[in-house]
Design goal:
The complex is a heterodimer. Helices cover 33% and strands 21% of the residues of chain A. Chain A is of the alpha/beta class. The longest helix of chain B is centred in the first third of the chain and has 15 residues. Classes of the chains: A alpha/beta, B mainly alpha. The complex binds flavin-adenine dinucleotide.
Chain lengths: 461, 83
């Protein structure tokens, strides 16, 4: 055997799993097809600007003295210190619907008072919801799926409040159209409302550097530009990985972070298993706008705005290229940084349709990108003060871009709605973690890698 | 290694996993998890650290014997006698 474990993909989940394995002296190698780590939350440069692919905010922020929530657990597991993440807290975020808005900060009491003020008739119901949430064991790896829409609507009788609660939770971590699994609702509720948002001064580069350095310090090996072309199987066991370069590597166990169906597609004769598994549909466009002043000088004081401008909030793959009736407006400058960021930036996220984008020819694709950016901006400036005259640089990426760089089918940022909590596949030494295991987002992906490494890859010698 | 040494090794390992906990008053006869904030992931890490440092294997069925400091010392003593 060349290795104890081979990991496919150097995103957040693969790196976190890698650290666990390398720390405990497993011979481990991570194979990444891109020339950069990070996957769905990587970084790039354009026109001299340093850009993050994804990062709006890290969820799950808690202060240093809290010990039992996901973030401190993750730090302990990775043998990192709280200070290592260099987290700076958000100013304030808001959920904005036509009739009402609910603001929230990293102080849960403030959120409670906002809900009480805007929905006085729901105060008791909201307390009931909090009780249900606190009693739910969302981290159980074998929980039965339950509709969150049903569960929440049976407690909260005002559909507007229900929609407003779902909006940020869905945008930041839901793979399912229209509804959400209740366990996932609880995870996201805690990570956004009970805990909170923060961001390292230097964005996602900081987190990725930290993970890569830790991994290497523990003795882990990382190979870039090493796409896995196929997994060779014999006797129901993954035997070796064939790389695009033609190299073949063998290992005792394989951990894949590239998605369930995507992993099955790497197996010989995969069709039978694949056809039964749902493929994720939800993807987004992300528009990145540099402006010539601090967003706060343009009247954009909030950190993140989750908005909906139509009657009911609808989270689904749109029929058209993009849906601008709801979305996320993020100002990465609006965190309590030690010093101001070098660039002034506003980011817009909107639901988008992969097939539509994918079917466009090259010229048409370019034109539609411009048109959609314009539409996304028009919708955004109905929610925030008009900043369009201050724009000095724009970039936009689509579901097609996400597919191209990360290999996630349909550019599905949160993967398949069918999660595999225990990370097992029908191949006994092949496991999955990351997006399709089910813990989502940056913190979620890292926890996913850690959990699956602990469960299947570390216990035996 | 003898009992007292083993005890301090275990406390040292716990300190590495949960660096902010005060371990100076840790009692031997009460479950460790009832005295400090330690979840099942952390508990697994104590076992893993012992394996990393001393090559000791603790099978899953024996985890229960490691729940208190006294229990852990008694369990590990014969297994660490040669170290
Ligand atoms: C626009 C956008 C904004 C986001 N904003 C936030 C945010 O603000 N906060 C937050 O918490 N989360 C955010 N997320 C979500 C977060 O980025 C993801 O949940 C997380 O990064 C997923 O990590 P992962 O390891 O599961 O998957 P991935 O990052 O996709 O890791 C898989 C890796 O495998 C590689 N790979 C694929 N196929 C192969 C192959 N055959 N061989 C070798 N390597 C392969 C890919 O290149 C990739 O690096 C955002 C995502 C996007 C797209």
């Amino acid at each position: 055997m060349d290795y104890d474990v081979l990991i496919i993909g150097a995103g957040m989940s693969g790196l976190a799993a890698g650290i666990r394995l390398a720390y405990f002296d497993k011979k481990v190698c991570i194979l990444e097809k891109h020339h950069r780590v990070g996957g769905l939350n990587s970084f790039y440069s354009k026109d001299g600007y340093k850009l993050d692919v994804g990062l709006h905010a890290m969820t799950n922020y808690v202060s240093k003295d809290v010990k039992s929530t996901p973030l401190p657990k993750l730090l302990r597991q990775l043998r990192l210190r709280f200070e290592d993440l260099d987290l700076c807290q958000q100013h304030m975020s808001v959920i904005k619907f036509p009739e009402k808005k609910i603001r929230f900060t990293n102080n849960f009491e403030f959120f409670l008072s906002e809900v009480a003020e805007n929905f006085p008739s729901q105060t008791d119901n909201f307390q009931k919801l909090l009780k249900t949430i606190s009693e739910h064991d969302e981290l159980s790896l074998d929980a039965k799926p339950l509709s969150a829409r049903q569960a929440v609507s049976s407690i909260i009788s005002d559909p507007l409040l229900v929609d407003m609660l779902f909006c940020p939770l869905m945008y930041y971590g839901n793979a399912q159209e229209h509804d959400m699994e209740f366990g996932q609702f609880v995870i996201m509720f805690k990570s956004i409302f009970c805990e909170g948002f923060a961001r390292p001064q230097n964005g996602v580069r900081h987190i990725l550097n930290l993970l890569v350095n830790k991994y290497r310090d523990c003795g882990g090996e990382l190979r870039m530009r090493s796409g896995v072309q196929s997994i060779r199987v014999s006797d129901g066991k993954a035997e070796s990985l064939l790389l695009n370069s033609g190299d073949v590597l063998t290992s005792d166990k394989v951990l894949s972070t590239v998605g369930h169906v995507e992993t099955m597609n790497l197996l010989p004769n995969s069709d039978a298993t694949v056809s039964k598994h749902e493929v994720g549909q939800l993807s987004f466009t992300e528009s990145i706008l540099m402006v010539d002043k601090q967003p706060s000088d343009l009247g954009l004081e909030t950190t993140i705005i989750f908005f909906n401008d139509s009657d009911r909030f609808s989270y689904r793959k749109p029929d058209s290229l993009i849906d601008v009736s709801s979305g996320v407006i993020c100002c990465p400058n609006n965190f309590f940084f030690r010093e101001p960021l070098p660039d002034n930036m506003i980011r817009l996220t909107n639901l988008a349709n992969f097939d539509r984008w994918n079917s466009l020819g090259e010229e048409e694709y370019k034109m539609q990108k411009e048109a959609c950016l314009k539409a996304a901006l028009e919708a955004a400036v109905k929610i925030v003060p008009d900043f369009r005259d201050s724009i000095i640089f724009t970039d936009m990426f689509t579901p097609k871009t996400i597919y191209k760089f990360t290999g996630h089918l349909n550019g599905a940022v949160y993967g398949s709605p069918q999660k595999i909590r225990d990370g097992r596949t029908h191949i006994k030494n092949l496991f999955i973690c990351g997006t399709d295991q089910g813990f989502l987002g940056i913190v979620g992906a890292m926890l996913s890698g850690i959990s699956i490494a602990n469960l299947h890859l570390l216990r035996d010698k | 290694m003898l009992g007292e040494q083993i005890r301090s090794v275990i406390v040292e390992v716990i300190a590495q996993i949960v660096p902010d906990e005060d371990l100076s008053n840790l009692r031997g006869d009460i479950r460790i998890r009832d005295q400090i904030e330690l979840d099942s992931m952390d508990f697994l890490d104590i076992i893993m650290e012992l394996r990393k440092r001393y090559g000791i294997e603790v099978p899953e069925d024996d985890y229960i014997q490691m729940a208190t400091l006294d229990g852990a010392v008694a369990y590990l003593e014969p297994r660490m006698a040669h170290l």
